[in-house]
Design brief:
about 90 residues, mainly alpha, 2 domains, about 0% strand, Transposase_IS30_CS
């Protein structure tokens, strides 16, 4: 995010950074980390895993319904947003 000022100027949106050592400010990120830890314990060297193994985990996580997405999967929501003619919110 070293170029966050350029991104802000280009697309007209603000970029926010969490305070250091404040995981409660990064809820979605911390949740994703927890899900990934079910497959890869902390400090796992991902280079020892084949790309197909990483893709399998990606597929499983993206196919898992999320309460915050109204029990939809990330894949379902992403596809719906891609095929929508209008801008939608996550609600």
């Amino acid at each position: 995010m070293a170029r966050h000022l350029e991104i802000t100027a280009a697309i007209g949106t603000k970029v926010y950074f969490c305070d250091a050592a404040s995981p409660w400010q990064r809820g979605s990120n911390e949740n994703a980390n927890g899900l990934l830890r079910q497959y890869f314990p902390k400090s796992t060297d991902l280079s020892v895993h084949a790309p197909r193994d990483l893709a399998r985990v990606e597929s499983e996580l993206n196919g898992r319904p999320r309460l915050t997405l109204g029990d939809r999967t990330p894949t379902e929501l992403f596809n719906a947003l891609l095929t929508s003619a209008s801008i939608q919110t996550l609600q």
